[in-house]
Write a structure and sequence with these properties.
438 residues
């Protein structure tokens, strides 16, 4: 359902027997989602837990996304021995920005006469949740219920400034291609150096790269704002997309010993036939007519080595690009539904990841011989998977944090999306090296 964040949704619908159902869905990623469904039958109120997995595709110009339900189990007592056949939810849309209200069915054959539109489907923000509302779906001693209640109490005492809502800070200097922008959020002495290299003008994937840049930038501006740390932004994109400008920006990064470096490359990548290094090379060609050679490409491992030697406390280097001799990122025919960013994070978890961790992280979207997949609505599947995994790790429902799990889930989520959830894709498995202590 959601392209890049943990979200909560409410779904209401009725069956042919006029029984009303209200569902509360907790969504992490395409293959990590559950819903609590409450309904009254035979004068008994029942709650069922259903697990969901997602599949997307495009048929005859129509996008679809299917959330298939499985493993339905009763949370409340079931004295009448009721069975529960989980609903599947289906979205159909041409305009990917307006997917509309989903349909539901329990018919595995999806016969039209057995498919019904739900009454309502909406995203629920954390500040809309109450103990009474959650009590419709959880027992009071369940870990998720306790986490929700604790977070509701904590959030009510926070300033509106402490959020990860995706927005551009008013203190940010205008994004003018190659400009270094500084957001002065605090005098804490810690600076997050955010470097984004995005091939936004290339004809086939430029739109996707621009989406990656926007989503990634907004994410980490939110992180800096929530933690009250400074942020410096370095961009190589649009008309400044070149190897020389990348080298200039890398040289401009001068971190303090307690600073953080976060680097993202999103664009075309490739490998040579005789290459022994497992990680890809970046193509820094601005157009399809520019020749890829030594002056217009650089090895990912070279960028990593340059940044790792700068001495920041935490250095994260990510790349979304192909790792094949063909060297062209692939555009999927299907789109994912996306939601607005939310505030469902725990400040302690976020602090553990960003302020209490030290070391280096290197990860890329594809293993040798593989493509990196994207679409023109959501950007790349690798960047989306990273943002999903990051938000899952700092979730109010998470009890601890670990960068190994963040990056591992990033690669796993991207592989699952491209192998099972995207009908037009081939699996991309990615590579990672995490050397972090917390």
């Amino acid at each position: 359902m959601v392209a890049f964040s943990q979200s909560f949704f409410e779904i209401t619908f009725q069956d042919r027997m006029n029984i009303s159902y209200r569902g509360f869905m907790v969504y992490y990623s395409e293959n990590n989602c559950y819903m609590r469904v409450g309904f009254t039958e035979s004068d008994n109120y029942n709650v069922v837990n259903v697990e969901y997995k997602s599949t997307t595709g495009n048929e005859n110009g129509v996008n679809y996304q299917l959330l298939a339900g499985e493993n339905a189990t009763f949370i409340t007592d079931n004295p009448n021995g009721l069975g529960y056949k989980p609903e599947d939810f289906l979205w159909l849309w041409k305009d990917s920005l307006n997917p509309g209200t989903p349909y539901y069915t329990t018919d595995p054959d999806f016969k039209p006469e057995n498919i019904y539109k739900v009454d309502d489907f909406k995203e629920i923000k954390l500040d809309q949740l109450t103990e009474d509302y959650l009590g419709q779906f959880y027992e009071s001693d369940e870990p998720d219920y306790i986490s929700f209640v604790n977070s509701i109490t904590h959030k009510s005492n926070q300033s509106n400034q402490d959020s990860l809502s995706i927005q551009n800070s008013q203190n940010t200097q205008p994004d003018q291609n190659n400009q270094i922008a500084t957001v002065d959020t605090t005098k804490s002495g810690i600076t997050l150096h955010l470097i984004i290299v995005a091939n936004t003008l290339i004809s086939n994937i430029g739109t996707s790269c621009a989406i990656d840049k926007k989503n990634f930038q907004s994410q980490f501006e939110g992180v800096a704002q929530a933690l009250k740390i400074n942020i410096k932004e370095y961009f190589v994109c649009d008309s400044t997309f070149s190897k020389q400008n990348l080298l200039n920006q890398l040289q401009a990064v001068v971190p303090g010993f307690n600073d953080i470096i976060v680097f993202l490359y999103t664009g075309h990548g490739f490998r040579y036939e005789d290459q022994t290094d497992s990680f890809p090379n970046f193509s820094l060609c601005m157009s399809d007519y520019q020749e890829v050679n030594e002056s217009s490409s650089i090895r990912l491992i070279s960028v990593y080595n340059i940044l790792a030697k700068k001495g920041a406390r935490l250095t994260i280097v990510l790349s979304n690009c192909c790792n094949s001799t063909a060297g062209l990122n692939q555009v999927a025919s299907s789109s994912l539904l996306s939601s607005k960013a939310n505030q469902n994070f725990d400040e302690t978890n976020l602090s553990k990841l960003m302020l209490n961790a030290g070391g280096t992280i290197l990860a890329t979207a594809a293993s040798p011989g593989e493509f990196a997949w994207c679409n023109h609505t959501n950007g790349s599947f690798f960047v989306n998977s990273f943002l999903q995994s990051f938000r899952q790790e700092i979730s109010i429902l998470n009890k601890d944090t670990d960068w190994q799990r963040v990056i591992g889930n990033t690669i796993l989520n991207a592989e699952e999306v491209t192998s099972t959830s995207c009908a037009s894709c081939q699996a991309q498995k990615g590579l990672m090296s995490v050397k972090v202590s917390q």
